[in-house]
Fold:
Amino acid sequence: PVIICIGLIWLAESPRWLMQVGREEEAHVILLRMIPDEGRATEVQAEIKEVIDAETSNSYADVLCPKTKALSAALHISLGLAIAQQITGSEAVIYYTPEIMKQAGITDLASQLLWAMPVGAAKLAGELVSVPLLDKQGRRPMLLIGGSMQCVTLFFLSLSFLLSWGFASTLVFVASFMFFFEVSAPISWLVPNEVYSTGKRGKAQSAAVTVNRITSGTIALTFLSLTRALGVSGTFFLFCALAGAVTIWYAVVVIETKGMTLEEVTTVLGRGEKRFGTSVNAGDTYDSVIHQHDDVEQSEGKGREAEIGGHEGEETPETKY
Structure:
């Protein structure tokens, strides 16, 4: 906490917040520190002002009952990421690692707690890998890697119990699962902040946290009951299936927000751009996305003109005779 408090001395205010409270000159100075281009900084400031002026209300009703396509997509992504982060069973693995070790053949309590340490170390390693790569690789790639590898490790963890592969393989797969969980986990907190404006962000994030904790508690409270009903192997196979479904949802729904301003993200969500393929990929800028859309419209327009022109030049039965 002390280090965080000291670091706050150098933490600048948000330009968007400064503009909301009428401190536009300070906002421009901070924008220039972030975007060392006077023209681009001025353009971004104008976009921010336009969004702020367009916001008439920032209540929970506006967040949870969205009236625009962009806000509907933002809510879907935010709450979906909150659920997806926890539904693959990570909290159950953390809470019940000693019980899992017991099922794998380690009966001594001290040994169960001891072998829980590598699982925690793998979780920390995943965080250390994920955070530096978020801005280099983008949000979607990290989500897809984390989700798909959780599915793979949970599948082999299920087989480990089903085929009695032994304690060593169980430990490896549990630790691997926690590592890949942390590769994608931070994005569930990052992206909701990138798809909402300052006025709605706090309320949207609180809703996402609430849904996340409810999902986490549900998984943790039902884990032992699931193991009794489905067996340990069946329970992890269920989590494997959920991880696969989550990965597909990541690929179809979550857009790439790397390198985009809030105004650009809002425009992309409002246009309903494709969630996969070449429309919104890691590293794409807002301008390239919009230009793609415009190019498609222009090519379609030229196609229609050519088609009309072709019909005009054709001989109809009436003109032929």
About this structure: The mean pLDDT is 80. Residues 198-253 form the longest helix (56 residues). The chain is about 80% helix and 0% strand.
